[in-house]
Amino acid sequence: MQEHVSDPFVGTLVDNRYAVRSRLARGGMSTVYLAVDQRLERDVALKVLHPHLAADENFLGRLGREAKAAARLSHPHVVGVLDQGTDGHTAYLVMEYIKGHTLREVITTKGALPPRLALALIDPVVEGLAAAHAAGFIHRDVKPENVLIADDGRIKIGDFGLARAVTTSTSSGTLMGTVAYMPPELVLGKSADTRSDVYSVGIMLFEMLTGQQPFDGEVPIQVAYQHVNGTVGPPSDLVPGLATEVDELVQWCTANDPENRPVDANALLQELRHIRTNLSDRELDLQPPAAIPAGPPALGIAREPVPAPDEDSRNRTESIGQVSNPTTVMPPGRPAPPRYSPVQGQEPGRRGSDLSATHASHVLTPPGEDSEESWPAAPALSKRALRKADKEEERARARAAAMPVRTLREGSPRRRGVLWIVVLVLAALLATGAGWFFGMGPGAAATIPSVANKTLAEAQQLLSTAGFRSTTQDVFDDDVPSGVVVGSEPEAGTEIRKFQPVSLIVSKGPQLFPLPQLEGGTLDEAKNALNAAEMALGTVTGEFNEETPAGIVLAQDPAPGTPARRGTPVAMVVSKGPEPIPVPSVVGKDEDDAVDAIEAAGLNAEVAREEVFDRNIPEGAVVSQAPAGGTLTRGQTVTLTISKGPRMVEVPSYIGRQAGEARRALEALGFEVRVNNILGGFFGTVRDQDPVDTEVPEGSVITLTVV
Predict the structure, then answer these.
(1) What's the pLDDT at 76?
(2) In which element (H, E) is residue 47 found?
(3) What is the pLDDT of residue 467?
(4) Cα 42 to Cα 528: distance, rounded to the nearest angstrom
């Protein structure tokens, strides 16, 4: 859902490409906007990092590498990373836009979910994580807010790479993540692996089944402490009747020791689908309680005493009791308080608060309560129980009496002195060995040298000289040539013990993908194909083509199937249809010449069957053409009409008649009349006419002599 709030980014253009439409959400590390990629004409999710992260150059470099790695992870249940960059003081990530809602909204709206729905929703999340784990990626921040459910039902997990980039860029005294779903090893400052994501999935499944999280507290440090020292109880304590297999699945995922969890998301996926297949419809459609009150911890969850947070820690951290669970910065860890159980000998995390009379003597006195009167009186025992207790006490006294209280052979003082000397020498040797091991030997601390942009052999030599042993990890990289080291894990400048391995991240060069076939389709189809292949639209040029209709792609560059990087621009030549040809004018030309001129222009000449008289166009010449002008396409026809020359007309005699009458009659016959007056033409009578009584061409000149 979109948030309709005032935001300075809304309405701006980021990096001269992404037009920001509205704000979608705000989290602990970034703000997410709905934007339009103006180059590819599609909606995207634009994640703008908060200023304190955007100002960290080391973080931006790390984020760039993580974004490139995440962009290569293509899976139907993983939100794709499309672009990353900076625009001035703005650092951003561009991701696939999923129109819909989050799993957090589902849990908030529905509360506890039936097992069938909970397992169906978690399945694609685990499948996406399995693909990521198989490709060598770890999410580190799995939570309902990062599970996106599209309006068409697609389920995807997002934010790969961001949590990792933040974690590796913050100081060693802080921890980045969402406390409610954080595995114990991350709280203790240990490295994360695939089993850490599995733990977060288990916590999320517990919340989906019960409607609440297994651990809560006033401040994040209290919740983190419970992840380390507590045990997640079975969801069936809150949802009676829940199948045992579902309880076991949740507790398998949320084991404190990573060794006791599924090795990765793929192993979890196999078990999850096995359970979904074998549960009965009654077990799958179990309806959870209508409402589960928030606040008290889940039954069966062991809680350890948590030190009250000081006022400073309250100001530095963020409450996790809210519906939303933003990624939280934990303050530097402090020593955990001593672990104890209300009953001596009871394991932490074990359920059971009913104490029998035989255990009453083992109850620890709470601090500050030394008086026996503060405890309730023990229940009265029967006579038989008293006699049995007396017999047990007698046997205990007999065993104590049979046990000697001092050694029968004390030994000489000299022997004890020699023994102490040996002990001291061994202790000195051990101390010396430990000092060498941690001071100069494999346990000594050293700083990892910079190995970026070096060949693998050079990087291995640098690490060997510094005392480290190295492993290699191959990755695709668009900027670093193949065979050259991209960086190391841990990063250069990190101080670790020499016996700890350093992984060299070696470039395999850019990952290449075959270009799609665009030729023969329309321009719109070609744009959609480029968008689907995550390639860019290059220069589009038009070209006349006599055989291909307008709008069809004639050629592309690079050619189809050519391996190319994501975002490679593809140029296209698009047909403009047949080229228009101007129609030449051939009126008045001889028939043969006219036909030659029409055909030379690429048109077809056709002579009309009917010829016409024309007093101006000689016989055999073109009188008219259709069309007379404009343009045609190659092969179209121009029709020519040929002249029969002027019509022959009989000239009657008008001698002896008045000149005006003769003129009008001759002009009506189509002749041109000229008058030659003699003596001024006083009488107006035609004395002579030339020509007369003969056939002449229409339009000829008739001369009248008038007296």
Answers:
(1) 92
(2) strand 42-49
(3) 82
(4) 10
CATH at 133: 1.10.510.10
- Give a yes or no: residue 22 inside a domain: yes
Question: 292-298 long-range CB contacts below 8 Å, 24 or more apart?
Answer: 292/111, 292/112, 292/210, 292/211, 292/212, 292/238, 294/212, 294/321, 295/216, 297/214, 297/215, 297/216, 298/206, 298/210, 298/212, 298/214, 298/232, 298/233, 298/235, 298/237, 298/238
Looking at the fold, whether 149 and 241 belong to one and the same domain comes out as yes
**Inside any domain, residue 412:** no
Residue 374 lies in a domain: no
Residue 585 and residue 571 in one domain: no
User: Does 256 share its domain with 191?
Assistant: yes
Q: Quick one: 149 and 268 in the same domain?
A: yes
What's the domain range around 608? 580-642
Query: Domain total for the chain?
Result: 6
What is the DSSP track for 188-217? TTPPP-HHHHHHHHHHHHHHHHHSS-S---
Whole-number Cα distances in Å, 64 to 161, 450, 514:
9, 18, 24
Which residues are annotated as catalytic? 141
Q: Mark which of 590, 612, 642 sits at the end of a domain.
A: 642
Q: In terms of domains, do 626 and 676 share one?
A: no
What is the mean pLDDT for each group of 10 consecutive residues in the chain (707 residues)? 65 93 84 92 90 78 75 87 88 91 94 96 96 89 93 89 47 56 91 94 97 91 91 95 96 96 95 94 89 38 34 34 44 38 34 32 32 35 50 54 44 67 80 64 77 88 85 86 88 82 88 89 91 90 89 92 88 91 90 89 88 84 90 89 85 86 86 85 83 83 84
Q: How are beta strands 569-575 and 622-626 bridged, if at all?
A: unpaired
CATH number at residue 546: 3.30.10.20
**Nearest Cα to 456, choosing from 448, 464, 466, 467?**
464
Indicate if 563 and 629 belong to the same structural domain.
no
Answer for the pair 20, 38: CB distance below 8 angstroms, yes or no: no
The pLDDT score that the predictor gives to residue 348 is 35
Find, among 212, 217, 141, the residue nearest to 183 by Cα. 141
For 371-386, how does the pLDDT look when each residue is reduced to its tens digit (9 = 90+)? 333 333 333 444 444 5
Instruction: Look up the CATH number of the domain holding residue 23.
Output: 3.30.200.20
The pLDDT of residue 306: 34
Q: In this structure, is residue 396 part of a structural domain?
A: no
